[in-house]
Amino acid sequence: MARKYWLMKCELEACSFEELKHDRPNSTGKWRGVRNYQARNFIRDEIKEGDWVLFYQSNCDTPGVPGLAQIVREGYPDPSAFDEKNHYYDPKSSPEKVQWYSVDVKWKRKFKNYVSLREMKGTPELADMRVVQRFQRLSIQPVTREHFEIVCSMGGIKVKA
DNA sequence: GCCAACGTTGGC
DNA sequence: GCCAACGTTGGC
Fold first, then answer.
1. Nucleotide B5, nearest residue via CA and C1'
2. Is A55 helix (H, G, I), strand (E, B) or coil?
3. Which protein residue's Cα is closest to nucleotide B4 at C1'?
4. What is the Cα Rg of chain A in Å?
5. Which of A13, A30, A133, A147 has the smallest number of Cβ neighbours within 10 A?
6. Terminal-to-terminal C-alpha distance of chain A
7. Which domains are seen in chain A, by residue range?
8. Which residues are in reach of strand B, CB within 7 A?
9. Gap from A72 CA to B9 C1', Å
């Protein structure tokens, strides 16, 4: 199975790229609380171990991609949905009838240059990338290999894909 | 803090 | 099953 590429949004407040590297065990973050069906389907069905992730920081002064992560654990039931005290609790989900899924991502590589959304919007080759479309809210987006490589080169690194 | 878009909910 | 109301996302 060919390796795939994704863009995953994370609110800066929830976990920055630096926090992922330094503050999480083994530099690995557990992606919890996705409550959108399209994003859920990607997590459950399509995202595979070894896939590359453009780690995207949203809801901050300069939204953009600081670097790369990689999928280290494929879709598994999101435990936050089962926990009544959790903000993401969903009574419609249970271990018997799982609604929502998690993946784990590991910090991989920081770009030499931060690639801001603004720069991506200004790059004609990225015009059909989802993240640059107006009002594109989907928090997990498939990325083509071509777009992935362009973003990496904007970030000043070369990735052997 | 504003506000457009869009997903979800719930009354009918 | 329609659709209005409401909530959330997220750039600006």
1. A135
2. strand
3. A135
4. 15
5. A13
6. 13
7. 5-154 (3.10.590.10)
8. A 36-37, 134-135, 137
9. 35
